[in-house]
Specification:
Layout: E1 11-14, H1 22-27, E2 32-37, H2 41-44, H3 47-57, E3 61-65, H4 74-86, E4 91-96, H5 98-110, H6 117-121, E5 133-137, E6 149-154, E7 159-164, E8 172-175, H7 185-203, H8 210-232, H9 237-250, H10 266-278, H11 282-297, H12 302-313, H13 318-331, H14 348-357, H15 369-379
Parallel strand pairs: 1-8, 2-3, 2-4, 4-5, 5-8
Antiparallel strand pairs: 6-7
Helix pairs in contact: 4-5, 7-8, 7-9, 7-11, 8-9, 10-11, 11-13, 11-15, 12-13, 14-15
The protein binds 5,6-dihydroxy-NADP and zinc ion.
Length: 384
């Protein structure tokens, strides 16, 4: 086992109507709130009304920044920083999925020093502190509600990247599974793919960490167990609650302790390229990229893939594991080939070049330019 530091300061409020404690919880951080949300789903799922009622009840002054897009862009982050500074806000409340929470993390981080958020992402500017961030989660997927990562893209440079910083752990996260009843079947499935991908990324980091391997097994198997039931019965509290907690647990440190680093993240880097180029939803990029990556890696790290195969599907064969994984993704209607999201082979060069330009790589499983081309072929369903 590798040495590790376990640190996660997020106070997580989980369950039915937990937002009824939001007002008194955030009041301790001041009175002026920057409320950040997306393109309007929060007004249909009841969360916006609940949050605003709580803030009004405690006499808070609300400034809103809405319109954060899925696969969030740095321009929105910059605009919200400006708005927050103008209104001298004391805290940031993120209301939505991973895109909103990630944007809010960077907003809260950059307001105190009036910093350029992209410079911070690129580690060219270094914030000393952050405003308190409070998250109200409406979509089970990324784990952002209980981790120190923010992922934002810059269309100008063609990059989508993650920033890791202990200052951006939310102070509090409120998770009411009822809000997720309204998530579409597509995004419900993408969330499940994402949490499985997070568990796999951790699994493929260096270091022997048996307990963390078992957490990976439990998280992935539980997600697979609840996937079809939750798609069939989207307003079943128990199914939604389980999926929500599983997704949080997949990227809050649990699966990474005892390994070197939080994960390999090569497949995420491949997926981010697709999101930058075609605005592919994050989970959809991963259900295409993971099988392709495994097909390349099965000759390079066969023993590790076989260990995962044994844990997840009780099979000893890499090929059987990959087939079963693709079958599961198809069952929940997640794409497994680029053609499934209407990207045809004429795009191959564009994809390979974009990956090379942004230096797509894993932290532990290195990807050469030839590997990136092979993975692209595999994502089109071609043999290599
Ligand atoms: O914009 P609105 O109207 O809110 O609609 C959203 C959006 O269209 C909708 N939605 C959210 N909650 C809903 C809902 N619709 C109905 N009912 C609800 N309760 O769902 C759509 C997708 O939302 P988004 O926030 O983009 O999804 P997700 O939570 O999957 O976040 C994806 C982003 O997180 C990043 C991804 O790269 C991507 O940019 N990631 C963040 C990570 C982290 N911070 O740790 C790790 C991940 O690997 C990932 O990279
Ligand atoms: Zn992810």
């Amino acid at each position: 086992m590798e040495n590790f530091v376990a640190y996660n300061p997020v106070q997580l409020h989980f369950g039915k109507e937990v937002v009824s404690n939001l007002g008194k919880t955030v009041r301790q951080y001041g009175t002026k709130v920057l409320l950040v949300y997306g393109k309007g789903s929060v007004k249909k799922n009841g969360s916006y009304d609940d949050v605003v009622a709580q803030l009004n009840k405690f006499g808070m002054q609300i400034t809103e920044y809405s319109g954060i897009k899925s696969n969030p862009v740095i321009e929105d982050v910059q605009n919200a920083i400006k708005l927050g500074i103008e209104n001298q806000v004391d805290m940031v409340i993120a209301l939505g999925g991973g895109s909103v929470i990630d944007s809010a993390k960077m907003i809260a981080l950059c307001i105190p020093g009036n910093l350029d958020a992209w410079k911070v992402m690129k580690m060219r500017a270094f914030p000393k502190k952050s405003l308190p961030l409070i998250a109200v989660l409406t979509l089970a997927a990324t784990g952002s509600e209980m981790n120190m990562f923010a992922v934002v893209q810059n269309p100008e440079t063609g990059e989508k990247m993650a920033h890791k910083n202990p200052l951006i752990f939310p102070k509090h996260s409120f998770l009411d599974p009822v809000y997720t009843y309204f998530v579409s079947p597509e995004y419900t499935a993408y969330g499940i793919v994402d949490l499985i991908a997070h568990s796999f990324e951790a699994f493929f980091a260096a270091g022997k960490a048996d307990l963390s391997d078992r957490f990976v097994q439990a998280i992935v198997q539980e997600a697979m167990r609840y996937a079809l039931p939750v798609l069939k019965e989207p307003d079943n509290y128990d199914y939604r609650a389980n999926i929500m907690w599983i997704a949080t647990s997949a990227l809050n440190g649990t699966t990474a302790y005892g390994r070197a680093g939080s994960g390999d993240w090569g497949v995420h880097a491949i997926g981010h390229t697709l999101s930058v180029l075609y605005d592919t939803p994050h989970g959809a990029s991963l259900s295409i990229a993971y099988p392709a990556w495994l097909k390349l890696m099965k000759n390079r790290i066969p023993d590790r893939i076989k260990q995962l195969a044994k844990l997840i599907f009780n099979t000893n064969e890499c090929d059987d594991f990959i087939v079963k994984l693709e079958t599961f993704f198809r069952q929940i209607k997640a794409p497994v080939k680029l053609q499934d999201i209407n990207i045809d082979v004429s795009r191959k060069e564009e994809i390979v070049n974009a990956m090379i330009k942004t230096k797509v790589n894993g932290y532990y499983q290195e990807l050469s330019e030839t590997d990136l081309e092979k993975i692209t072929d595999l994502m089109f369903g071609n043999k290599i």
